[in-house]
């Protein structure tokens, strides 16, 4: 997307059947309007990406202590079961130790 | 502030490493670790230091992320969590059960957060929708695993650990050792 090299025509590039095709939109006010619309669309997309990134960071911040708690709880559960005389078979079932 | 937090988490990290080492030794068949593990698991102080702060951290983080400055919402969630915790703890929970219940409560909250975030997007991109769906699936899986572990520990380990403590119980009035009635 942008003005051609002479700055006369506003163009948009798109992919058709795997090939890049340049579409000539127009010059003068028509080209200006198309350029403004594209810029606005681009800003909107960038803002959405920024928002998604911020949200993912917030989620990661929210999940971090829960992950830590999960790890700790698993460790303690394993310790409790081992201390009670159980052993884990094939990383799934807990069975009473023989003898 | 950061230094205070670091200072507070250091003993918890040391304890974490200590338990990890003990569990590893027990897993490889070192019988001498069993009394140590039993003693550690029945210490409310040690368990509180390990998990108590984490549970509060989860709540604070959730309140900030889900409710923003909405105090009413925050207090509603706090009340709901208290009720859930109360229902799950039951009578005389062991310190290990307390941590496992905290985990179940935290995971439940995480599922609610994932559902809320997923529903809040009116017009998500495919990538965003996929991200939220995957998070929802993962949180649900973790929640179910947390409930399963709590049930497993209650069924298999807690009776043994409680009997072990009962054997050591001393009746102060008569200064006599109370024999265990089970096992």
Give the C-alpha Rg of chain B. Answer: 20 Å
* Helix/strand structural class of chain B: mainly alpha
Beta percentage of chain A is: 25-35%
The whole-number mean of residue pLDDT values of chain A reads: 87
Which percent bin holds the helix content of chain B?
over 70%
Q: How many individual β-strands of chain A?
A: 5
Question: What's the order of the H and E elements of chain A?
Answer: EEEHEE
Order of helices and strands of chain B: HHHHHHEE
Number of strands of chain B: 2
Helicity of chain A, as a percent range: 55-70%
How many alpha or pi helices of chain A?
Answer: 1
Largest sheet of chain A: 3 strands, antiparallel
N→C terminal distance of chain A: 76 Å
Poorly predicted ranges of chain B (pLDDT <50, ≥5 residues)? 171-183
Low-confidence stretches of chain A: none
Specify the number of helices of chain B.
Answer: 6
Q: How are the strands ordered across the major sheet of chain B?
A: 1-2
Distance between the termini of chain B: 50 Å
Q: Identify the overall geometry of chain A.
A: rod-shaped
Strand content of chain B: under 5%
Query: Order of strands in the sheet with the most strands of chain A?
Result: 1-2-3
Structural commentary:
The complex is a heterodimer of chains A (99) and B (183). Helix content of chain A is 57%, strand content 25%. With 99 residues, chain A is α+β, with helices and mostly antiparallel strands. In chain A, a hairpin with a 6-residue loop joins strand 1 (2-3) and strand 2 (10-16). Chain A is rod-shaped. Chain A has one helix and five strands. In chain A, the strands form two sheets. Chain A has a three-stranded antiparallel beta sheet. Chain A has one helix spanning 28-83; strands spanning 2-3, 10-16, 19-26, 86-89, 93-96. Chain B starts with a helix and ends in a 6-residue tail after the last strand. Chain B contains six helices and two strands; from the N terminus they run ααααααββ. In chain B, helix 5 runs antiparallel to helix 6. Chain B has 183 residues and is mostly helical. Chain B is elongated and about 60 Å long. In chain B, a hairpin with a 4-residue loop joins strand 1 and strand 2 (176-177). Chain B has helices at 2-27, 33-41, 44-67, 71-89, 95-120, 126-168; strands spanning 170-171, 176-177. In chain B, 80% of the residues lie in helices and 2% in strands. Mean pLDDT of chain B is 75; it is low at 171-183.
């Amino acid at each position: 997307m942008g003005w051609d090299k002479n700055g006369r025509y506003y163009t948009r590039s798109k992919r058709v059947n795997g090939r890049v095709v340049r579409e000539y939109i127009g010059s003068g006010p028509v080209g200006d309007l198309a350029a403004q619309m594209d810029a606005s669309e681009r800003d909107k997309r960038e803002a959405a990406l920024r928002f998604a990134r911020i949200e993912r960071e917030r989620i990661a911040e929210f999940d971090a202590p829960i992950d830590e708690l999960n790890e700790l709880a698993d460790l303690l559960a394993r310790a409790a079961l081992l201390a009670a005389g159980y052993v884990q078979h094939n990383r799934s079932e807990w069975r009473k130790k023989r003898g | 502030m950061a230094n205070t937090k670091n200072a507070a988490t250091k003993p918890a990290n040391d304890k974490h490493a200590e338990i990890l080492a003990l569990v590893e030794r027990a897993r490889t068949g070192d019988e001498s670790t069993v009394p140590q593990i039993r003693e550690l698991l029945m210490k409310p102080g040690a368990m509180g230091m390990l998990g108590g702060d984490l549970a509060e951290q989860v709540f604070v983080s959730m309140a900030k992320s889900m409710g923003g400055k909405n105090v009413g919402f925050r207090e509603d969630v706090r009340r709901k969590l208290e009720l859930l915790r109360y229902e799950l703890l039951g009578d005389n929970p062991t310190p290990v059960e307390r941590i496992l219940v905290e985990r179940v409560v935290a995971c439940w909250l995480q599922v609610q957060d994932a559902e809320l975030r997923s529903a809040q997007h009116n017009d998500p991109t495919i990538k965003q929708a996929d991200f939220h769906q995957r998070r929802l699936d993962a949180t649900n899986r973790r929640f179910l695993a947390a409930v399963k572990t709590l049930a497993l520990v209650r069924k298999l380990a807690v009776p043994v650990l409680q009997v072990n403590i009962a054997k050591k119980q001393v009746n102060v009035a008569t200064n006599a050792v109370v024999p265990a009635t089970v096992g």
